[in-house]
Amino acid sequence: MLLLRLAFRNLRRNTRRTVITAVAISLGLAMLIVTSGFGDGAHGQMVRSGVSSMAGHVVVQGRGWQERRETDIAVPHSPQVQARLQALVPEATVVPRVYLQGLLTSPDGSVGVALSAVDPVLEPRVNDVPAKLVAGEYLDGDPNAIVLGTTLAETLGVALGDKLVLMVQHGGEIESRLLRVRGLFRYGIDEIDGFYAQIHICTAQALLGLGEDVTQLSLHLPSARDVDAVQAGVSAAMAGDPVEVLPWPEALPDLYMWVVLDEAGMYVFVLIIAVIVAMGILNTVLMSVFERMRELGVMLALGMSPLRLAALVLTEGLLLGLFSTAIGLVLGLLGSWPLAVYGFDYAEIAGESLKSMEAAGVAFESLVYADLSAYKVAIFCALTVAMTLLAALYPAWKAATLRPIACLQHH
Amino acid sequence: MPMLMRIAWRNIWRQRRRTLITAGAMAFGVAFSMSTIALAIGLFDDMFRMMVRENMGHVQIHHPDYPKQRALYDTIPGGEELLAQLDALPEAAGGTGRLFGYALLGAGDEAGGAQLIGVLPALEEAATGVGKKTHEGRFLGPAPAHEIVLGAGLAESLKVGVGGDVVAVTQAADGSMGNDLYNVVGIVQTGSVLQDRAGAWLHLADLQELLVLPGQLHEIALVAPDDDRAQALATATLPLLEHAGRPALTWEALHPADGAPPATPPEGALLVRTWRQINPMMAQILSLQDASIGIVLVMVFSVAALGVLNTMLMSVLERTKELGVMVALGLRPRQVVLLVLLETLALAAVALVGGVALGLLFDGYLAFMGLDFSFMMDSYSWAGVAFEPVMYGVIRVQDILFTGIGLFAISLLAALWPALQAARLQPVEAMRQE
């Protein structure tokens, strides 16, 4: 207690220096909170976009599909499996899909496209294609309807209501089907708008001779945090079936690696800021020890143990760390607040054509909302205090090894 | 002044440990900023190189309707003769002609949609160096021989390798269904997400035959000798096209700045565009380059500046008495400010020397060894560009200069307050202080 009072008074003795050091520490912490929240927001958005359109939080596929991606690898007895999954994970939306490649042909030309064949009722609950429609409507019960990207429609020279032929190859044969354009969507990314379309799932099943089976049953969860638990549960329940049960990081490895790499880059940046701040703390505390040589020497001479003296210096560091962390936390939350509520749109600075960009194969919108996790913020705060203590170690050791005589002679 | 400089230099070494720690923090900031900038420039350079210099070309010429509608029959009639003349322009370092089509490619039981790209192999190779991106096998031979080169992703989804055969089915320009068999001679990775996933290269003559478009081209792509000369190259094509009886339409004429209605293309006109006009997104991403460097510098230096502020303030306050004596002996307040600022400059100079040395070490590693993420991934994609999993840094003198100037500027700014504190000393009171 005495140590605490002493440490507190020592910090107050040089208010200006304490405040400047505290500002450096809290500024570092605030930057960390804001950049990390912003990064998590951006990554969360990418993951949501990828997971909703290209997979699910957890996917159930015919065994070997992830590796080989052959259209005849399907989930056997799909309707029953779908019902079992829904019963197993009631909070999830279970969505059946068939992924296929084909050639769309109109009188104006033909384009090779990637198609998702979907359930028109279930898909809109998880996928944002209906929200991206700029003309017409989303798929309904009509098996011959197709929705496609605006660029693709331009290339093919088709408008709403026009006819298109879809050709796919199956078992060495070319199968084709006449479709009618029901809706046009626009993401603002050529990779999607120019080469992607959706059709009714039963059309794909008929074209590929799949019967009632589907390529993938994807589980879309209310929160991405439950992925591992759900994957384990589903995996155990499906152990007897010829299927593979994958969490999204394994279903979408490119996206996952992108996020990991980007996060790693951010942590390197954080580390650098931390090192610069730590050197600042080291300097402050070390100087405060050196300029109090005489005083510390007197304390030693009066019988204070070196260990207690070291504890005093460490306590000063701790107090400084706690104080700065509190300010940094407030600053960081204040800085993140507008980013979380109103978001930040870098396309407004950089230019309209960056509104929507491709990243790791998914649409990345330039309007990003920060997403703060209490857990991460708590860790950052703890790290800041720990770093301050660490920086005070050397000065504390210096103080503990002072020789009282030399100190008293020092001026 | 020289005397003040000598005093300043001596002063900073009176507290050796403090000077070294502060300079160390600043040097670390400089070194880190340098390597971050080198990586960022490397990334942007890669992107530009892969998408523009080694793919699109700096300038492209099309039928005015082709870029928007991509209709098979919007071709450049007599394109090959025109290409030969354009390639001979002194402003052009290379030129190549392309014909495009879409087809369903089948190999065994697998099928996939593909974008067919018909090229003149020798010209394409000279202009964009596509042959160097052939990961397996080789690029197309000089003569049409029903050879095909596939994008890596396409080859994977078709499960076909070098030596395999693929069947292309497509609708030809005359409305008939064209199909033909091609032998896979190579597999390429161009760095364009779309082309790696769906691109297939054929000899121009083979594709002209498949699409029933004899002697036609969709695109003429020209490469400038360096990236700054794209506009000059575009301008140089205009009189040549005019002379060849093909009035040129510029992008500016189609998109008037004042909102006036766009020009109607005269019969037989051709559209000439630079890479900025073809791919405005790429241009805007490249404009992010300077902004991202600025953000790094501001964040790193704002923390470093507080260290400078603290150090200089301490050093002024602990020398109150000494500074008081100097003022009493006739040093003017202006000179006191100068002394403190000179000390800061000396500190920054020490930091800069150490920082640049360390930074060049980092940069050298990044430039020659690179950061290798291949243990994690095959490639990662951003804005339509598939990057190699090894990131290389690019060292540019201007970035190092910029970092150095930033360091000096921010240090001086941080030292202003301590310097003014020192200048306001009242000598009598200052000397009385213990």
Folded structure, characterized:
The complex is a heterodimer of chains A (411) and B (434). With 411 residues, chain A is α+β, with helices and mostly antiparallel strands. Chain A is 55% helix and 21% strand. Chain A has helices spanning 2-13, 15-54, 65-68, 78-88, 123-126, 150-156, 190-193, 201-208, 227-237, 248-251, 253-290, 293-301, 306-341, 347-350, 374-400, 404-409; strands spanning 58-62, 93-106, 109-118, 133-136, 145-149, 163-170, 173-185, 196-200, 216-220, 243-247, 344-345, 356-359, 362-365, 367-368. With 434 residues, chain B is α+β, with helices and mostly antiparallel strands. Chain B is 53% helix and 19% strand. Chain B contains 16 helices and 15 strands. In chain B, the strands form three sheets. Chain B has a six-stranded mixed β-barrel with strand order 2-3-8-5-7-6, surrounded by four helices. Chain B has a two-stranded antiparallel ribbon with strand order 12-15. In chain B, a hairpin with a 5-residue loop joins strand 6 and strand 7. The two termini of chain B are 30 Å apart. The mean pLDDT of chain B is 88. The chains are: A alpha+beta (411), B alpha+beta (434). Chains A and B meet through helix 2, strand 2, strand 3, strand 6 and helix 11 of A and helix 2, strand 2, strand 3, strand 6 and helix 7 of B.
Question: Key terms for this structure?
Answer:
heterodimer; A: 411 residues; two-stranded antiparallel sheet; 14 strands; 55% helix; 21% strand; elongated; B: 434 residues
Name the poorly predicted regions of chain A: none
Q: Report the structural category of chain A.
A: alpha+beta
Strand content of chain A: 15-25%
Sheet with the most strands, sense and barrel status of chain B: 6 strands, mixed, barrel
Supply the number of helical segments of chain A.
Answer: 16
